[in-house]
From TrEMBL:
SUPFAM superfamilies, per the entry: TPR-like
Lineage of the species this protein comes from: Eukaryota, Viridiplantae, Streptophyta, Embryophyta, Tracheophyta
Stated name of the protein: Pentacotripeptide-repeat region of PRORP domain-containing protein
UniProt GO cellular component terms: mitochondrion
GO molecular function per UniProt: mRNA binding
Spans of repeat PPR: 136-170, 171-205, 206-240
Keyword terms of this UniProt record: Mitochondrion, Repeat, Transit peptide
Domain of life of the source: Eukaryota
Record carries keyword Mitochondrion: yes
Species this protein is from: Aegilops tauschii subsp. strangulata
Protein's UniProt keywords contain Repeat: yes
Sequence segments annotated as region (Disordered): 1-32
Gene3D superfamilies: Tetratricopeptide repeat domain
NCBIfam families associated with the record: PPR (TIGR00756)
Length: 501
C-alpha cells in the first residue's frame, strides 16, 4: 500500500552502493565477509534473480542470525530505492527458507512487490490466495493501489465499492489512491467529487490529498481554486508537508507566476525536517532552475553538501539536470568531474545528462570522448545514450556517425535494443542517395540483429545496389534465409540486378 508523497512522482534516491567485488572474492575464497548484511545486499546493485538468496544463504553458513525485524527493515530500504525484484526475493526467502509468518502489513507489501515485479494478474492471484483474515483494509488497499497504478479504472472503482460495503474504505489512503487514478486519467471533476465524499465520510484529508486537489484545479486552469485548497487546508489545521509547497511552486511556475513560485519554494525549504532526507533539496534545485534562478540552485547545492556526509548519485543527477535547464555548461563540467572522482557506484544517467549538454551545445566530439573515458572505467552506455547520439547525428545530417550508434544499439541487452521505426526509412533513403552499398549492408545487419529486417528494407538495399551499379549473387538466398517473401517489387529489383530465378 505504498504511495509517494507529492503532486507528481518524486524521484527516490538511488543510493550509491559499494562495489560487489569484495563480496565475490570473499565468496570465492570461502572466507568470512566482515560487512554487515544490509551492506552486502545494497552492494548487489542490479544483480539478477538468485543474488539475494545467495547472500542470505552465505550469511547463514557463516553462523550468523537473522531477525525478522531487521529483514523487514531491509525490505523497506530496498523498496525505497526501487529495487523491487530484490525486495521481493528477500520476502520470498523469509517465507520459504526461514519459514517466517507474514503479518497483514507484510502481505500488503508483498502484494505490492508482486505487482511491480510480476504484473497485475500475479498480484490478483496472490490476493485471491490469501486466507480470509488476511483480506483486510491493508491488503484490499494494496490491491486498490495496484489497480490505480495500472490505470484499471473499472476494477479500481469496483474494488473501492466492495471496500465500502465491508466498511473499510473510510480512510485517507484508498480515497487518495482513487483520486490519483482520476487525476492521471484527466478526470478532474471526479477528483473533486471524491473530495466531497471524503468530507461526507468525515475522513481527514492529508498532504497528498492537498497535492492531488491542487494539481486537478491547475489542470482545469483554476489557479484561484488552487490557492483556496491550500488556504482551506491550512485553516483547518491540516499538517502540510514540503511536497504541498513543491506542488504549488510547480503550478505557479507552469502558469508563469515566478514570484509566487519562489515564495512557495521559500515556504517549502522552511518545512524540511531531518527525516525528509535529500529529496526536498533535489526538488528545490529542479524548481529553482525552472524559474531561471541560478544563484538559488547553487545555494541549495551548497546546503546539500554541507548538510549530508555524502552526496548521492541522485543529488548529483538533480544538480546536473538543473544546470542543463540553465545551460551553465562550465559549472556542469565542474560538478560532473566532482562526481566522477567521488562516486562509489557508477550511474549511466549522470553521463547521459552530460552527453545531452555537450550535444545541445554542438560538442559531439566531447560527448564521444566522455563515453570513451566511461568505457575505460568499465561503464556501459544504455538505450538513452544511443537515442541521444542518434537524434543529434541524424539532426545534423551526419548519418555515418549515426550508423555507428545504430550498431551500438545492437550491443544492448535484447529487451533494451530497439530502434525507432520512424528512423529506418531515413537511413534507407540516405544510403540510396549516396549509393553507399557498404553502409546499407551495415545498416541491414543491424536491422537483422534487432529483428527489424523486412521487405521494405530489402527493397531499399536492392535499389542501393542498382544506384551504385553493383551486383551480388547472394541477395536472393539472403532474402530467403531471412524468411522474407519475394514479392513482385523485390522480384523485379532482383531481375534488374541480374538475379533472375
Amino acid at each position: 500500500e505504498e504511495h509517494e508523497e507529492g503532486g507528481g512522482t518524486p524521484r527516490q534516491e538511488a543510493e550509491a552502493a559499494p562495489d560487489a567485488e569484495g563480496a565475490k572474492k570473499a565468496a570465492a575464497a570461502g572466507t568470512k565477509d566482515s560487512r554487515p548484511l544490509y551492506r552486502r545486499l545494497s552492494a548487489l546493485g542490479n544483480a539478477g534473480e538468485g543474488s539475494v538468496s545467495a547472500v542470505m544463504n552465505k550469511w547463514l553458513r557463516e553462523g550468523r542470525e537473522t531477525r525478522s525485524v531487521d529483514l523487514e527493515r531491509y525490505v523497506k530500504e530496498l523498496r525505497k530505492y526501487k529495487r523491487h525484484s530484490q525486495a521481493l526475493e528477500l520476502m520470498d526467502w523469509m517465507v520459504h527458507t526461514k519459514g517466517m509468518n507474514m503479518s497483514y502489513t507484510n502481505h500488503a507489501i508483498r502484494l505490492d512487490l508482486i505487482y511491480k515485479v510480476r504484473g497485475i494478474e500475479a498480484a490478483e492471484k496472490y490476493f485471491d490466495g490469501l486466507p480470509d483474515p488476511a483480506k483486510n483494509h491493508r491488503t484490499y488497499g494494496a490491491l486498490l493501489n495496484c489497480y490505480c497504478s495500472s490505470k484499471k479504472e473499472e476494477k479500481a472503482t469496483d474494488l473501492y465499492r466492495k471496500m465500502d460495503e465491508l466498511g473499510i474504505s473510510s480512510s485517507t489512503l484508498p480515497i487518495n489512491n482513487l483520486m490519483s487514478l482520476y487525476m492521471k486519467l484527466g478526470q478532474h471533476k471526479k477528483v473533486c467529487s471524491l473530495f466531497e465524499e471524503m468530507k461526507e465520510k468525515n475522513v481527514k484529508p492529508d498532504n497528498l490529498t492537498c497535492c492531488i486537489l491542487m494539481t486537478s484545479c491547475a489542470a482545469l486552469n483554476k489557479i484561484d481554486d488552487v490557492e483556496q485548497v491550500l488556504k482551506e487546508m491550512e485553516e483547518k489545521g491540516g499538517v502540510l508537508g514540503w511536497s504541498a509547497y513543491s506542488t504549488l511552486a510547480s503550478i505557479y511556475q507552469s502558469a508563469g507566476l515566478v514570484e509566487k513560485a519562489e515564495s512557495a519554494l521559500k515556504k517549502l525549504e522552511g518545512l524540511v525536517q531531518d527525516r525528509d532526507g535529500r529529496q526536498p533539496f533535489d526538488f528545490l534545485m529542479s524548481l529553482y532552475a525552472s524559474v531561471g534562478n541560478l544563484s538559488e540552485v547553487k545555494r541549495v547545492w551548497g546546503v546539500v553538501k554541507d548538510t549530508f556526509p555524502k552526496v548521492t548519485n541522485t543529488s548529483y543527477f538533480s544538480m546536473l539536470q538543473a544546470l542543463l535547464k540553465l545551460n551553465d555548461a562550465d559549472y556542469m563540467k565542474q560538478v560532473f568531474e566532482e562526481w566522477e572522482s567521488n562516486h562509489e557506484c557508477y550511474d549511466v544517467k549522470l553521463t547521459n545528462v552530460m552527453t545531452r549538454a555537450h550535444l545541445k551545445n554542438g560538442m559531439a566530439k566531447e560527448a564521444e570522448q566522455l563515453w570513451e573515458k566511461a568505457k575505460e572505467m568499465g561503464a556501459c552506455f544504455d538505450s538513452k545514450t544511443c537515442e541521444l547520439f542518434l537524434d543529434h547525428y541524424m539532426g545534423t545530417g551526419d548519418m555515418k556517425s549515426a550508423l555507428n550508434w545504430v550498431e551500438n544499439v545492437t550491443k544492448l541487452p535484447k529487451k533494451a535494443g530497439k530502434l525507432d521505426p520512424d528512423k529506418i526509412p531515413k537511413f534507407s533513403k540516405y544510403f540510396e542517395e549516396q549509393k553507399d552499398v557498404q553502409g546499407a549492408e551495415r545498416f541491414c545487419n543491424c536491422l537483422r540483429a534487432l529483428g527489424c529486417m523486412d521487405g521494405k528494407a530489402y527493397e531499399s538495399l536492392l535499389r542501393t545496389y542498382l544506384a551504385a551499379g553493383e551486383t551480388s549473387r547472394s541477395l536472393r538466398q539472403q532474402i530467403k534465409d531471412d524468411k522474407i517473401e519475394i514479392c513482385y517489387d523485390i522480384g523485379k529489383l532482383l531481375k534488374r540486378l541480374g538475379e533472375g530465378r
